[in-house]
Every structure is written in C-alpha cells, then in structure tokens.
Design brief:
By secondary structure, the protein is α/β, with parallel strands linked by helices. It is built from eleven helices and 13 strands. It has three domains: 118 residues, Cobalt-precorrin-4 Transmethylase, domain 1, CATH 3.40.1010; 85 residues, Rossmann fold, CATH 3.40.50; 91 residues, Cobalt-precorrin-4 Transmethylase, domain 1 (3-Layer(aba) Sandwich), CATH 3.40.1010.20. The strands form three sheets. It has a five-stranded parallel beta sheet with strand order 11-10-12-1-13, sandwiched between helices. The protein has a four-stranded parallel beta sheet with strand order 3-2-4-5, with helices on both faces. Strands 7-6-8-9 form a four-stranded parallel beta sheet, sandwiched between helices. The longest helix is centred in the N-terminal third of the chain and has 16 residues. It is flat. The protein binds iron/sulfur cluster.
C-alpha cells in the first residue's frame, strides 16, 4: 500500500507562529504558567501537550489573575476584549495571525466607506466573532439560504472567514450579485486554506482511501474532510491513529493523508507510523513528512 502525505498537511504559518510565541512565553514566564483565552488551537492532543508545559486555558478573561500573561490566539479577538485585558493589567501576547488582522482592517475600511459589511462564515467561530467585533453593524451569513433571505442592498461590502470553503464563497458571491448593484468583495480566504483545500481535493481523487487528520472541533479540518468526501466516499476524519479502523483499507492500493492547519506534525507522523506498521512493507511518498522522518520510517 502506498501512503501519500499531502505537502500542505499540518500547521499553517499562523498557527506555527502562535504556538511558537506561546511556548517561548511559557519558557520565559517566572510563574511557570501563562493563560490563553480559549483553546490556542483546535487540536486536543496539542492542547494536552501545552497544558503539561504550564499553559492554562480559560473561557473568560475574568478567570485570569491580575498581572499574569495572556495569549491571544491566531483567531484574534474583538477590541473590547483587548481593552478589558488591559484594564486587568495583564501582559498581552498577541498571536493573532496577520492574515486575520488584515480581515479586521478590510472590514473597518468597508464600514468607513459606508458599505454595510457582510461576513461570510460561521457566526459562532471565534475568528468571525473577532471580525464582527471590529465593526458597528456586522451582517453574518454561513449558508446560501441565509444569503437568499437577506434583503436587497444598494451597496454591500463582503469579507469572509479565512478558512471558508472556496466553493461556498463562489456560490455566495453569485447569489449576492443578483441582489446588490454596488458590491465590494474582499476574498479573505487565506492562501494556506486554499492550498490545503485544493491539494486535498486533488489527492482524494487519486487514492482509494483518504485520511484527514485534525480536531473534530477544527473548522478547517472539517472543511478538508467535506471537500475530500465530495470526491472520494472513502474519506475519514480522524483525530489520531486511535480512530483508524483497519477494514477501511481492504483492497486499497493508495492511501492519501492530509491534515488541518491546526494539526501538529507529530500527530501526522504517528498516523503514518501506525499505517506503515500495520501494512508491513507499505511505501511512503508525498512531501508532507519531513525528510529526516521519512528516512527513519523507510529504514524502520
Ligand atoms: S489558516 Fe491562514 S489565517 Fe488562519 S492562522 Fe493559518 S495562516 Fe493565519
């Protein structure tokens, strides 16, 4: 069985940066701990690792004792939260991804130009909540039926969640073009997302079984799974090797692997190792595994 790992599998630049900032701050922390508002990334295994290093995850800033350090995760937050953290005299480590900050700036710019702003994305996702918090009267839509229910606007500005499915974005924009004359659209889907989605779709078409690794609560991993499942029914969303069922691979010659932007490399490596162990004689290809690890696996 050939195992092909997508080149784009795993941590994106923004998540890598956020985790690095958090780990460096932990090492420098005198109290041996730092706080994070919400989960730093949507990956249970990486969260457990960070907890064991001293990171404390809280749901609300009121739970953080004054004077402590707090990490703002890559999703970003609304300005009122930053103000509240400053009021509590907390040391803020802002790991908001610069691409998310760019969406904030674009939404603010549209509103200054008197465009009502529509955010395409999941209203409950922290990134969308953060974008919405930067403008006065945000509109949010996550489905085509929500877009159809919107009234007609003389003018409208559009931004989107950085991990939005590109196919949904295209359909949403087509529907909006029928409703709005003066429309200003910023495609704020991050290239890391776009590349992962394109590669997942391509790989899923070429293999017999496709594994998508990442947290069940990870929005971008779920979208990779949906894209893969649409072209290959044998697509499975797993969090780790423990979720794998051996009967998925009956008669399979090629297995594709990709992983969400919040899935650490070490989790991908564990899945690959598990597959190589149980297929005995499996061959690893693709460029999604670091060269040194690939050599180790191949010679094991
Ligand atoms: S997916 Fe893109 S926007 Fe989101 S954290 Fe990664 S690099 Fe930043």
């Amino acid at each position: 069985m050939e195992i092909i790992v997508a080149k784009s599998a795993g941590f994106c630049w923004g998540v890598k940066r956020a985790v690095k900032m958090a780990v460096e701050s932990l090492k420098a922390s005198k109290s041996g701990r730092i706080f994070c508002l919400g989960e730093l990334i949507h990956n249970r295994l990486e969260i457990e690792r960070l907890k064991s290093m001293g990171m404390v995850f809280v749901g609300d800033f009121s739970e953080i004792p004054e004077g402590e350090s707090v990490v703002i995760r890559s999703h970003g937050v609304a300005p009122f939260i930053i103000k509240a953290l400053q009021k509590r005299n907390l040391n803020i480590i802002d790991a908001t991804c610069p691409f998310v900050k760019d969406v904030h700036e674009k939404a603010i710019k549209l509103e200054r130009e008197n465009y009502p702003v529509l955010i395409l994305g999941n209203p409950k996702h922290p990134e969308v909540e953060g974008i919405a918090g930067h403008i006065q009267n945000p509109l949010i839509a996550s489905t085509l039926s929500e877009i159809e229910k919107l009234p007609s606007f003389p003018k409208l500005g559009v931004v989107c969640q950085t991990t939005l499915n590109i196919n949904f974005f295209k359909r949403a924009i087509s529907a909006l073009l029928l409703k709005v004359k003066d429309i200003k659209i910023y495609n704020t889907i991050c290239s890391a997302t776009h590349i992962r989605q394109r590669e997942a779709q391509k790989l899923a078409k070429e293999v017999d079984v496709m594994l998508i690794i990442g947290g069940k609560n990870s929005s971008n991993t779920t979208k990779l799974y949906q894209i893969s499942k649409a072209v290959n029914d044998n697509s499975f969303h797993i969090e780790s090797e423990e979720d794998i069922e051996k009967n998925w691979f009956k008669g399979a010659k090629k297995v594709g692997i990709t992983a969400g932007a919040s899935t650490p490399q070490w989790v991908i490596e564990r899945v690959v190792k598990y597959l190589l162990d149980f297929t005995k004689g499996g061959k690893l290809s693709g460029r999604g595994i670091r060269k040194t690890v690939r050599r180790e696996f191949q010679s094991a």
